[in-house]
Design goal:
- This protein has 217 residues and is α+β, with helices and mostly antiparallel strands.
- Among the domains are: 41 residues; 106 residues, Glutaredoxin.
- The protein is rod-shaped.
Length: 217
């Protein structure tokens, strides 16, 4: 009986030992397979990390290097014609204008100014209206170009003209201006004596004005 029990115990011990040995062998085999599998991945990861580290300097350059490159590009850039001097042609040669400067001609203008008082009689108004009609009819071209102008002034309200043109009664004054300066003037004093004859009055106004205008340079 004891032999049977001993045999069973030995068998159990052998079974347990075999089982433990198998478990140990399986664990060792698993560890080896894991180490083998992790080896290439770790190496690839290290290579990838190393490659990324090596490429870092190419992705961002120092600020001083960028500044040097920018200054080099600006110094070596070829200026376009649009950016150049507006007085320089596209070939780089300065533009020149031939010929002498044109001198502006001085314009001669004749002003017919009728000076009157505040209180006006019928004859005074007739002289003004008739003189204006004659001048506009005989010198229509001059009026159209601005070389002759008509105006009326109340000499009692503009006393400076009384002294300037020696006015003692309503008078038609012709003033010649060249450029910006008054060159001469004349008073048509015979208007009061000739107004009784419309033809004589018209001839007098026309002849005196034409002679005065012909003196324009």
């Amino acid at each position: 009986m004891r032999i049977v029990r001993l045999s069973v115990t030995v068998a159990l011990l052998l079974f347990v030992g075999a089982t433990v040995g198998m478990l140990i062998a399986q664990e060792v085999a698993c560890l080896d397979s894991v180490s083998v599998a992790e080896g290439p991945e770790a190496s690839a990861a290290e290579e990838a990390e190393g490659g990324a580290t090596a490429g870092t300097p190419e992705q961002s350059a120092p600020d001083d290097v960028v500044a040097s490159l920018d200054s080099l590009d600006e110094s070596t850039a070829t200026p376009s014609p649009e950016d150049g001097d507006p007085e320089t042609s596209t070939s780089g040669e300065a533009l020149t204008v031939e010929g002498d400067p044109v001198e502006s001609e001085l314009v001669c203008v004749v002003d017919a100014i009728y000076f009157h008082n505040t209180l006006r009689c019928h004859t005074c108004r007739t002289i003004e209206e008739t003189a204006k009609a004659v001048l506009e009819a005989e010198f229509s071209e001059e009026f159209a170009t601005g070389q002759m102008r008509w105006s009326t002034i109340n000499m009692e309200q503009q006393q400076r003209y009384v002294e300037e043109y020696d006015l003692v009664k309503p008078t038609l004054i012709l003033v010649r201006t060249v450029g910006e300066e008054q060159s001469d003037w004349v008073a048509l004093d015979e208007t009061w004596n000739s107004i009784r004859s419309e033809l004589r009055f018209a001839d007098y106004i026309e002849n005196e004005t034409r002679a005065f205008s012909e003196a324009c340079p």
